[in-house]
Amino acid sequence: MQLELMKSSAILINTARGAVVNPDALYRALSSGKIAGAALDVTQPEPIAMDSPLLTLDNLIIAPHIGSASRQTRDKMAQMAIANLVAGLEGNPLPYCVNPQVYSS
């Protein structure tokens, strides 16, 4: 990630994957004021080590990987899991398979 290219008023938000953001580079950018702040729902490693220097910063918010925890997303996740389970038990391809190419081999 090119944190040095960001404006000093920038606030970085990462809800994707912890590995998207280098924690050492993020610490340097935040502690030096290169960027104004950050909010993370994911970290690398996860969970974040309790002795991580990131935890000493007051311009960083870290949530415990719960960004998708809404009623709607949890309901949809349950529906998808049930559909996959039923399909698997019936010997059919899973409708919510991340790598469906496995069925063609």
Query: What is the strand arrangement across the widest sheet?
Result: 1-2-3
* Average predicted local confidence, pLDDT: 92
Number of helices: 2
User: How many E strands?
Assistant: 3
Q: Secondary-structure element order, as H and E? A: EHEEH
**Relative strand content:** 5-15%
Q: What separation lies between the terminal Cα atoms? A: 36 Å
- Percentage of residues in helical conformation: 25-40%
Largest beta-sheet details: 3 strands, parallel
Poorly predicted tracts of residues: none
Morphology: elongated
Tally of distinct domains = 2
Detail the topology: elements first, then pairings:
Layout: E1 11-14, H1 23-32, E2 37-40, E3 60-62, H2 71-89
Parallel strand pairs: 1-2, 2-3
Description:
The structure is a single chain. With 105 residues, the chain is an alpha/beta fold. It folds into two domains: 3-62, no CATH class; 71-97. The protein contains two helices and three strands; from the N terminus they run E-H-E-E-H. Strands 1-2-3 form a three-stranded parallel beta sheet, with no helix packed on it. The protein is elongated, with a radius of gyration of 19 Å. The two termini are 36 Å apart. The mean pLDDT is 92. Keywords: Oxidoreductase. This is D-isomer specific 2-hydroxyacid dehydrogenase NAD-binding domain-containing protein. InterPro entries: D-isomer_2-hydroxyacid_DH (IPR050223), D-isomer_DH_CS (IPR029753), D-isomer_DH_NAD-bd (IPR006140), NAD(P)-bd_dom_sf (IPR036291). Residues 2-67 form the D-isomer specific 2-hydroxyacid dehydrogenase NAD-binding domain.
